[in-house]
Amino acid sequence: MDLRHHLRVWMRWKLLLIVGFLLAIVLGIFATFKPAGAGLEWRSEAVYATKSRLFVTQPGFPWGRVTLPGAVSGQASAAPTPADKADGVDFADPARFSNLAIVYAYLAQSDEVRALIRPLPEPGQINVIWQATGSGDALPLLELTAKGNTAIGAQQLNEKAIKAMKGYLNAQLDKSNVPDGQRVQIQVLNPPLPGKIESGRTPTLSVVAFVLIMVGTLLLLYILENLYPTPVRNAGLRLEDPIDEGAWTDGATARIDDHKAWPPVTVEPPAEKVRPSA
User: Fold this and answer.
1) CB distance 51 to 161 below 8 Å
2) String of b and e for 20-47 (b: at least 16 CB within 10 Å)?
3) Which residues have CB under 8 Å from 85's CB, separation 6+?
4) Residue 208 neighbours by CB distance under 10 Å
5) Which residue in 167, 161, 119, 122 sits closest to 143, CA to CA?
6) 207 three-state secondary structure
């Protein structure tokens, strides 16, 4: 590849190249931004997301006990202590909380729970999934993800979703007159932090638009050069004229043949053969 040849082509069509470059910049900017008064604003809203982790458990922290006093049948248990009787705590099978976590994940995304949040979020703004082990067994842990147009908005929505979920469960327990010692608790292990940007407001589209326009400009430039090649600079030269070493013919890279004309060739008649004497 002859770089000097490409530079000469670009210099010849430099006006087209400049126009294409400016057009690529302008369209690249407007691919991501739009006019807004005297300035520009993003075409797409930013989406921020934040997560929190919830623990489905019960009073008395059964996960720290070797045996569970007052456990349900089929579980190893010890005799209830006076403190347990005073608190009215009945310990359940720990595996039950893992199953409840799956149920609560669906309840947290239901219309009834979303209706407790103001302003009312869109269905896709709140997502709750249960955690599982490497083998696929469910854990009594929930991961709640909330999305918003600002970092603080996503954090506040996550906090409101947790509050709405707790409020819905407590309302149902109050309606059923469930004692405090037998109620499932939702503990916040990891509270939500200000959200991090997840999508939107990325310059990728601008970069793609700029590259495509510049490629199209160069393609048009070489098409025009092929249709209208660079004029011959050494038109009318004769072989005996001095050669300009910097000159080029028909836009090609080959120089004019610098061989001088060959001198005329003199053809001598063949010598007569001498017959030998007898």
Assistant:
1) no
2) beeebeeebeebbeeeeeeeeeeeeebb
3) none
4) 12
5) 161
6) helix
172 C-beta neighbours (distance < 10 Å), count: 12
* pTM of full prediction above 0.85: no
One-letter amino acid for residue 117 of the chain: I
The encoded tokens of residue 237 equal 């030269």
Question: Residue 160: CB partners within 8 Å, gap ≥ 6?
Answer: 117, 118
Q: Indicate the helix (H) or strand (E) that contains 39.
A: strand 39-42
The length of the chain is 278
CA distance 170 to 33: 47
Query: Six-digit token pair at 153?
Result: 């908005």
Q: Which amino acid is at 218?
A: L
- Residue 232, pLDDT > 70, answer no
Tell me, what's the pLDDT at 69? 67
Which H or E element spans position 57? strand 47-57
Mean pLDDT of 116-142: 90
Residues with Cβ < 8 Å from 48, sequence gap 6 or more? 147, 148, 149, 150, 151, 153, 154, 194, 195, 196, 197, 198
Q: Is the pLDDT of residue 173 over 90?
A: yes
State the CB neighbour count (10 A cutoff) for residue 94.
16
Specify whether the CB–CB gap between 69 and 80 falls below 8 A: yes
d(CA 124, CA 189) in angstroms, rounded, equals: 23
The residue with tokens 């819905």 is: 168
Per-residue pLDDT reduced to its tens digit, 60-85: 888 887 777 655 444 444 444 544 54
Q: Tell me how far apart the alpha carbons of residues 42 and 86 are, in angstroms, rounded to a whole number.
A: 61
Q: How many CB atoms are located within 10 Å of the residue 113 CB?
A: 21
Residue 33 has what pLDDT? 86
Q: Which two tokens stand for residue 5?
A: 């040849």
119 upstream amide cis, omega within 30 of 0? yes
